[in-house]
């Protein structure tokens, strides 16, 4: 009860902690402490007195203070006061903003460490945060990051004086360490805050509620919090720890970041890096606009560096492959062994003073973080004045075998009018003594200029140019240094992206262009030549539709694509069709404006408009092709005009002279395309887009390169869709937006290949999508962990999934990683993506909250899961192929056993097995005929060959796993064919084969391994098929939604699902073995008894169904076919339950829960009875079976015991509320009528129209009235289920008007007349139905006189 209340009222732990801190009184002053507290404070102050900053040692004072201290504490202080401590050594800190040090020691298990750092909040709040050691945030960190076994407050004198118990986990083979410490916070006479903590005496014990193996450890520490402003303070922590026992020194040193971790967490909890950097940058930008006084040395430095780089001609630089299309990177090779000179330039969307300030602040937090992320070791700065400073850097090259590098640079800046120049040059000053033993000194100089440009729509612009030349020293090859040029120049890219406002600039440009084009279309005048080009483009669109094209699978499942190649042509045509959530004029403006920033790609070497016009322009483009292919240049004339409810855009190659430089290897290419942009309907905000293109790349390109080029050309539509999707805010998103974002997340791009250091391609893709999407950026600010979670989802790494029950308000990075990694395992354990996402959402409460909060979340995740399943199809395919493999193996083992029985003289067994296999093949051949009877002979022959090759289960599994569409003329879907194939194999091959092999094994003179293996394969195959049938039905979200009272017994967690699936397989296999053994015993008494038993059993079952008026099956059959089909279906279901116990068939529409339980129970009773009858008869001696009576009873009881044990485990794992479904006596017709009577959703109510009418004839009048009353509404709303197949399933007298019925078309009337032959109708409705049918025929006759109307209806 208490736990449920906590979960119900749970709020954000961070917010609750902040409220608690705000309500806490200020810490007491030192003068207000009592004697005990004062002694505690003075005992810890010895650390600060001995090792604090700027304070000398004082052993005598420490001795006086600790004269009455405990033995353990005295030992620590003696250790502190001893001479066994060496000098402070810096420790690698996880954060560049927290310095950590340790003193080397002689003894094991003892360590002394200190840490210093700045926290961005008032000192008093840090103290409150620290002493509240069991806050929600602190407990989360202890549990999730440090994996502490226990942490709690043992006693509390006040909010600032308590005893804390903390059990720290240690590496494997070492016991956990128990710390029981008292911590006291107060304010000293200097105005600083102090937190003193030391161990409690040994007699103080903690009760953990259970036995815990721990070793007592102790620690004494002193934290001084010094205010440095209203919103900042400096923390200095000194701590001495005795870990107890014997722990190697290296283990303790590795634990130092964890020992000092509280200071790290304090900084992270109150971090305001971006805010502080922004304030510092604004302040520095103001200073740069003021006048400065320069010394002669500073002027010499500025002029010397500028002159040195000014002498380099621009033509000597060669272009590099820049990762950013808006940043140009170049390299001038050096002479001999001298490294080359690098240059980068970019236009930054900020004022030139802000850009220069961003660069100048070398110790800004963003600069420091980037430096350490790239291998930095140490970085410090000495400012001389506002315009000059020195910077010292130590960095690792990240290559084993190379020494670390060190550089000391002197920087200076100067502003002249609208240009700010920043220079740097290596210096030999003794500012930082060089450590020649561990570091190699680098030499470099650089020039960075910031030139103010004209604003774009009020957005300031700055041209940034950076030229740098560096000698890394040592024996690093010149090629290696030049090869790292792009990575080094990424600094310019980082500056540009920091201030990037491309989205805003492109949006304003798009709005202007849309207004211009919209105004032009009313007054546009086209020449005859222009009309000819546009008509030719329209002809391409029309001509393509009549060609026999080949479908192409795109990464984006939202679009349909195909290609067509004329015989004899070297190049192909392509076509892609999709929809865009935007107005046609906006899409046209985006297509027309080729110079938008968002349309620049990394392979664009040049892009410009040569002839600019409102509806006619010439575009030049030069693209980089993969090595060793030469670059391609395109000249294209592009035109547009209004067309229907949208626009037509046509592009044809333009004849023009090449713009390639002399000696440049460039091949002329051609690109022809036509694009039709049309509004879907008059009041719709969505437009359709049809794009036909023919890229001709010139030269001699291999076919694979042409295919890649065509795929990229087809990707233009996805670029348009992503662009307009990214402009929508989170509040405007709906289900379609979620699907669009999902498509983008699983579509690979070229940009992701240029990911950052330490970043995977999937992480880069997600990061870029979040940067480009306004809605995702809003979501990322609201939930900072969401991007990381989606990176793990898209990464799709299969691993064991963990559980986390944290609510949405308390999700952190660690939880996000757990949740994101859990989707892959859900995909594995489910057949459909809907079921996988449903399991994933149900497993993690935070995702369930997101699902309730945002309507687009589930469609997005289902689209992502579908994309992941298509790219790495190990989810449903694994189970499908496993089942197919078992079926094929079962077939071949059966064939092998037929051969074995034949050669060993067991003719009867061989004949029976052959008959079973032959029956199975014959029935499957019948399904092949039904499936392919309308297909060409070649398709029929292919399917027959697949069947007789034994590979049909595998082929059907592949078709389902790859989601292949039905071929033209096919009558059954791949899913239905797979189910039919499995059912036929189970009924006609696996079950009879298992019984035959049981008889053969019992009658044989000796049990062979091959016979047992064949029997085991048959049992496992049958168990797997029965389990997967029930499993897939239950985990489907649609069925759980429609019939929650029956579906949902399988738990939602991946581990439980795996275990319950294994139990279902074993249940089916064991039941088959039990039935096989009992049938074998009965057949050896006399085969006629087998017939008597099963015929009487089946007769009683059918009689029960007849008595309860439940014989008619739910399939929609009429007349005599209803009787024959229902009896056949009921018999097949009964046999499957008898021998495999398929859980799905306890459904009221099948056997029913009560009958299912009685059936399975009777199966085991029959096993006992038949065993007793066999050994009581004289056949036991005549048959001479391999088992004596005792062994036979042991076998039967072992199978029974195993089945009941496995079934008990199944019941323990299943959801308890579904136990009643195993005993339900509800009939099928009552359940079917419940669809209409017990549900409010129209889709579920209308299930009845596709179901056998006999099952709901008693409520037909109610169904008819409801259908008539709502038909017009459904016609207006057009729900997804209200499609043509549904309309064809509805009786004509239930459709309200003759003209509405006539809209179904002539083919429906013909089919209906045929399907209704011999059907039974309710007496009171026959006349009305006939009248309605006649009215419909008359209406169709009237409407068919109009040719246009007929064509529209068809």
TrEMBL record:
UniProt region (Disordered), positions on chain: 1304-1354
Tell me the keywords, alphabetical order: Membrane, Transmembrane, Transmembrane helix
Q: In its keyword annotation, does this UniProt entry include Transmembrane helix?
A: yes
Domain START residues, every copy: 349-482
Mitochondrion found in the keyword field: no
InterPro entries per the record?
START-like_dom_sf, START_lipid-bd_dom, START_lipid_transfer
Q: Compositional bias of type Basic residues: which residue ranges?
A: 1304-1315
Q: Where is the composition biased (Basic and acidic residues)?
A: 1334-1354
Where does the sequence pass through the membrane? Answer: 1011-1031, 1058-1077, 1089-1107, 1154-1175, 1195-1214
Q: Matching Pfam families, A to Z?
A: START (PF01852)
Q: Which PROSITE patterns does the protein's record reference?
A: START (PS50848)
Q: What name has this protein been given in UniProt?
A: START domain-containing protein
